[in-house]
Fold this sequence. Notes:
This protein is of the alpha+beta class. It folds into 2 domains: 1-42; 44-135, GMP Synthetase, Chain A, domain 3, CATH 3.30.300. Helices cover 30% and strands 22% of the residues. Strand 2 and strand 3 form a beta hairpin. Helix 1 crosses helix 2 (105-115).
Amino acid sequence: xxGTPSVTAVLxxxxxxxxxxxxxxxxxQADEPLEVGGGNAAPAPDRLxxxxxxxxxxxxxxxxxxxxxxxxxGVRVELQLNPEGKPEAGNDILRRIVLEGGLSDEQRAxxxxxxxxxxxxxxxxxxxxxxxxxx
Length: 135
C-alpha cells in the first residue's frame, strides 16, 4: 500500500497541456478541447474527474465480486457530467453501471451498494476541503 497520494501538475510552453506525475512514478497528461484553445491532446480536467470515479467504481465492484465469489465477468461504467445542462446550483454526475455475468437480482443490488461506497464516490459526495498556498 502506498503512502499519502500526491500528484504534481506542470504546465510549460504548450497552452493548456499539463503533465502530471504521482508519488508512484506514473505519468499522464490533461489538455483542453480545441474550441477553447487547447490541443485536445489528452482528456480535459472534467473528464479526468469522471475517469477517476469510473475507475474506482469498476475496481471496487470487481474486487468485492471476486472476494464474495459473485460470477461477475465484466463491468462498464458510463459517466456524464451535467447531462441535462448545468444546474443552478451544484453539479450532477450520471453514472450508469453495466454488470456482466449471470448475476441474481440480489447480487446486482449488492454490487450497486458497493459501487455507491467506492472511495471516489465517498470523496466526491462528502465534505471536501482544499487548502491552497503559494510556494
